[in-house]
Structure formats: structure tokens, C-alpha cells
Specification:
The structure holds 2 protein chains of 2 kinds. Chain A contains 18 helices and no strands. Chain A is mostly helical. Chain A starts with 5 loop residues before the first helix and ends in a 12-residue tail after the last helix. Chain B has a domain of 230 residues: Rossmann fold, CATH 3.40.50. Chain B has a 5-stranded parallel sheet with strand order 2-1-3-6-7, sandwiched between helices. The longest helix of chain B is centred in the first third of the chain and has 25 residues. Classes of the chains: A mainly alpha, B alpha/beta. At the A-B interface, helix 1, helix 8, helix 10, helix 11 and helix 16 of A face helix 1, helix 8 and helix 9 of B.
Chain lengths: 473, 352
Amino acid sequence: MLFNSLTFVVFFALVLALHALPVSWTAKKRNLLIASYIFYAAWNPPFVILVWLSTIVDWHVAKAMYTSGVQSRRRLLLTVSVLVNLGLLGFFKYGNFLLENFQAIVSIFGFNYEPAQWSIILPVGISFYTFQTMAYSLDVYLKRSKPAESFLDFALFVTFFPQLVAGPIVRPTHLIPQFATPRKATRDQLLWGLGMVTLGLFMKIVIADGALASTADLVYGEAEQIATLDAWLGTLAFSGQIFCDFAGYSTTAIGVALCLGFSLPNNFRFPYAAIGFSDFWRRWHISLSSWLRDYLYIPLGGNRKGNVRTYVNLLLTMLIGGLWHGASWTFVVWGGLHGLYLAVERWILARWGNAEIGKKTLVRIFLALLTYFLVNITWVFFRAQDFATAWRILSSMLFFGSGDKVLVPTVQIIEVSVVIVGLIMTHWLMRDRTLESVVSKLPPWLLGTVWAALIWMVIVTQGSADSFIYFQF
Amino acid sequence: MNNPEETSYDRDIPSQRWGLVSLVALILTLVGLAAWEWQMRRIGLFAGDLNNVPAAWAVERRKLMHPDPNAIAVVGASRILFDLNLDIFEEKTGIRPVQLALGGTNARPYLQDMGDNEAFNGLLIVGITPGSFFREPRQRNFGRLEHFRDQSPAQRSGHLIGRFLEGYFAFIDRGYALFNIIERNDWPERRDIDGPYLDVWKIASHSADRYTYMWPRLEHDAYLVDHAQRVWSNGMSKPRPQPEDLVSKVIDAAVKNVQDIRARGGEVTFVRLPSSGEYIEMETEKYPREKIWDELLQQTGSFGVHFADYPQLKDLDPPEWSHLYRDDADTFTREYARILLDELEWFRDRQP
């Protein structure tokens, strides 16, 4: 079920009504669990079985790990959990990719291997909930936390519908304790939650789908070499689209959870104002970058095993982060570029990190724009369906293969320019602030007017309930 | 990689007078929507004019999931969609057709779908718009079929809720969504670009069962008629290159589809709907009747109705060259139904 759909509006109203009924906390949690399964099944009912499988395996594995004192048995149990979760992910998400690469490799040695065609549907959100449940098993294995005491709480942690299909990827220590005691949104939480839902839907429906998607689709769907301006417009449009699409989802998810009395962590913090790439990853898809840090980068040794290993660990973490997004080498290159940026930044900071010049406002603005420029280079690989397209767009953007075909109509040039300039300025102004602090300072009449304007635009834009981009990951 | 900052366990709630804020928001939203609804009704939109969305097509397509020798289905492009009044056709023949035609598409994927549909054993009416039937289908032409096959339960329920709301609010019309209104101004364009101004604007109204007719405003708005003509003219000036053997390939494929339907006891009939102006000129020149229409009927062994062959149809004049006024569509449907009843063998045992 999509947040930006009429079905969700009705569903959410019913869930809120059920949650307000004077019944026991356990009954309310059961309602939420059933609602979460309905939310997931509304896309494709049979795939609920995968969520159940992941839930049951990790529940039993964690219990057994916690009670076992034998390290080899604990390691075996962890392996079972990781194999089941990564096995699901591997089969549904990477099956075709692995097969294609196997074919390519054996063909190098002269073997013509033609396997039967697979037709595998990617279960929506599988990368999110498998990572979330793996975190639970890993935390118990590493003795960072105890297993959940209630199966109902654990099942709800895996399935909680606001963040089930596209995050934020929530840590067990953050969410499971919230299920332990009765929670009900206060009036202010409910209204602020609805405000966040409005903001998230505005970002998705009006900005991402309404103002930017058509330009990105037009440019990245073109088979010929295009002019430099058009290549840039397409990529800038995508940079705004992916942010507003994904941050819009996260904001809506946080708002929905808040309306029910639950707290989810922030997933974005104005990333296009980032100065450098470590700063960028503190602001972009925070729940994934912190997951990769805690469960991959640090276990690999982090920065504790010397410079060379640090650089290798950075690169490896980002390559895997890239592959997490999709079963394609273009995503690996996207991750690899980010790994490279982080490594170069680390090298530079080690030498000139304390230079006074880096503290001047103009220099900081320049560095933020440079970061945004380099991020856009990576978006080319993220958005392009293949390397040929990526190379065509990139060569046009960087002037070494520009064609003369123009694509983007005047009105879309205006839309992309206005939105992207507005987006970057907003991010810069909000760089060291929070949304909550700014909202607190607005006069009530102005805040009410802005809220009404957002709702009005969401409604009259008449979005076509397009999927969120991150649903495919 | 540096550590992201930890998020707090409980979220901050902005300190605000939330009761006042939400009251202001509620009042302004209602005022804004009422004003928008008023403006949309003023320009000719009306409640009950339904969006022609993929889910609506899927609802119709599902009606053909079970064998029914008396079923009638219609595939084709926009002309058969606009020009066939389902109520009148049902009144004349006793059977309400399932309307599967789609504006701006190539009908062939849908003819093939009916050929492949093991449950279909009724009569298939194929509307022929030569310029769209005899060209390679684009990927987007398969969109409705994909939606029908992949439709999720949430999409089905969303469609039902949408239908309910469209019955009350005129502004719910994709043709007048906010960004369509913004983008379809006549902006100065860069060279060789067809901007959104040259998109097809709203020209149709739809009611239940995808019964479609010309949007009433178009019947008395010369600017919109002129705009539609500009769009068609622009499209005709930029034909996509097609393979040389396309006509024979299209006819061969149609023969196969027709044979498949007949093998199950069904029948197929073709209809060539009225066109005028630059369209009829282009169609006469590029799609000569003897090579296209006559050949199609002969190869498939099908009965067909060409508007030019019937005095009662040949003078019907589409105002924007491609689709009939609503009254003319009613006339066309009455006469077309009568011709089918008189001349198509399939109807002999099914006279109402």
C-alpha cells in the first residue's frame, strides 16, 4: 500500500480509530500487527509469507542464542539467521543478477550456458525488513541487547507498517521498548504527526512526481547524445526527485508513527547542504549509513587497523551499500564512487583538515556546492538503466561528448531551476537547524496558512499514486 | 565513515498553539478547495466525469474472464472509444459491449490479448484508425494490459474510492491537474521541441463502463477545437519511420488473432470510423483503402464497416478531424448497430 494513495487515507483513518478504542494495550498491538500485514498484503498477498518467515526464524534464533553459552552454537544460530535473511534477499533480489554474471563469466571460457528464464518478482521493501531483522539477531549475538520478551512486540517490530517497506531502518533497541508500554499520541503529537504526513506527501506528490519526475524520465529515457544543458537538467531533476521521493516517504512514515504515539528516527537532515561526504552520509539515508557503519564497517575493523585497511573498509562498505540498492553494476559504481569520495576526503582532511580557510563562509558554500556537484555525478549511475546511458549523460554533462539534441521544454527548465535552487537554499538555511525549531518560531496563522497551502497542492496535483523509488530496493 | 548523530528516543514536538494552527489550516483548505471546485465547474468540468485510468480499463477487462458466447468487446483507438454510445448500442442490439478501446494507442496488443484470451468466445469489434493500427506499438501501449495483470488489491480499492469521490467533485480530473494547467501554457519553446502545450488536452468525458463521449465544452469552444487540430497536425508532420513490410506483418498477425478467436466460436468485425480535414487527407494518401482496409478484410475473411460505404455515415463530420460530436456519435451508433444486425451473421441468432 502506498502512502500517496486513497486506499491508505481510508486505511490510516481506520487504524487511528482502532488505536483510540478503549481496549487493552495488547489488543491495540494486535490491531497494529494485523493492520501491518494488511498494509503489506495490499501490494501482493503471498509475499506476507516472507515477512512471517523472517519474523519466526529471527525470533527463535535470538532466543536460542541468548540462552546458549556455547560460542560455536551461537555462531551457528547467527549463521542460520543471516543465511535465511540474505538467502531471501539473494534469491528475490540478486538471483537474476548472479545468474547473468555467471553466464558472462563462463562465456569468457568458451562455455555457452543458457539457463531457463526466471521471472522473479521483487518483494517490495525486502531490503529494508531483512536488514532490520538481521540487526536484531546481530545485536543479540554481540550481546548489545536482550531478545524481545514478547513475540507480539517482536513481530510488530519487524512489520510495523509506517516503516515496513522503505524505512527508516529502525534498531530493535529503539522500537521494541516502545511496544512494551501503552502509547497514545497526545493532541500535539497527533497534529504535528499529521503536519509531517502532509509535508512528506507534498514532497512526494507535488515536488518529486509533479515537478521533477517528467524531466528526469525524459532525459534518462533518451537514446541519443543530448546537449549539455539537458543532461544537467535531467540529472539535477533526478537529484531533487530522489531526495523528495525518499525523504518524503521517511517524513510521512515518521508522521504516521507519531500519530499513533510512536517515535521513529530521522532519516534525512538536509543533505544537499553537506560539506564533504562524511557530512553527506550523516544527512542522507541516516538509518542505512548507520546500519552499515555498525554492522559492516566497524566489524571489518573500521579505522582501527591502519590507514590502508581503513580505506579498504570504507570502499568495501560503500560498494556493498551500492549493491544493497539494486542488483546492477551501475549501483556498485554509485557506491564505489561514494567510497572513493570518502577515502579522498579522509586523505585531504588528514593533511589540511584544520586549515583556517575552511571555516570561511564563502569557502564553505563553495565546498557544499562542490559536494553537490560530485553527488550529482554519482546520481547519473544511480538513475541510468545501463552504463551506455550513464556514459552518454555523463559525457554530455562534462562537455566531452555533448550532442546537440535538445529535449527539455521551457516550462520544465523553469520548474527544475526553481525547485532545485529553492531546495539547495532551503537545505543551506536549515543546515544547522531542525524542522521542529523553525516550526516553533512561526506565528500560528502563518503555519496554518502554509499547512493549508501544502494540503491544497497535494490534492489539486492529483498524483497518480506512483510508487516510491525506494520501494524497488 | 563518521558516525551519524544518534537520534533521540522521543521526538521533539514544536511548541505551537496547535489548536489554532489546525483550525486556520482546516478553514483555509476548505476555502481553497471550494474555490478550486467552483473554478473547475466554471470552465466546464462536472461531477461524475470519470478519469479514464488504467484501473477503469482493468474493471472492464475482468468482465471477459469467463466464456460468454454473447459477449461483445471493443478494441481500438480513440475514434471507436468516442463514437460508440454504449447505451444506444445496447438498446439496439440487446448486448452492452465491453469498451476496451484506448485513446492514443495501437489497438493491436489488445486484439492479440483477445486472441490469446482463452475465455473470450464472443464478438470482437476492432476500430481501425489506420495511422495507429498500422504502426509499431510503443511500450506505453501495453500499459493497460500490464496494469490489468499486475493490479494490486490496494490499487483496486483505491479505484473504488476514487470513483466515489469523482461522483461528487468536478475538480478530480487528470486533464486539469495542477501541473497540467501550469505546463500547458503556450511557453516559447527551444528548437525542435514539442512542449506540453502540444500534448493532447482534455477532449473526452467518461461515465461508468468507460462510456466515452466528446467533452461538452469542446463542442462550442473554437479555441479547444483549433488546439486539437494543431496537435493532430503536429503529430502527422512527424511520422515515426516504420518497417517496409509492416502492413503485411500487421495483417498476418491480425489473421492469426482472428483465427484464434474463431476457433473458440467467436467472431471479429472491423470498423473504419469517420475522419475529416488533414486526417482524411493523410489517411487517403498514406493508407490507401485497397492496400489496407480491403486487404485486412479479405485476409481475415471478416465483415467490416467503412463509413464511406454507407450514405448514412459518410457525411458525419468530426469537428477536430478525428472524433464525432456527441449527437453525431449517437447517430453513428444507431446506424452502425443497424448495419451489424442486418449484415453480420453473428447477430442472426441474437436479434433482440
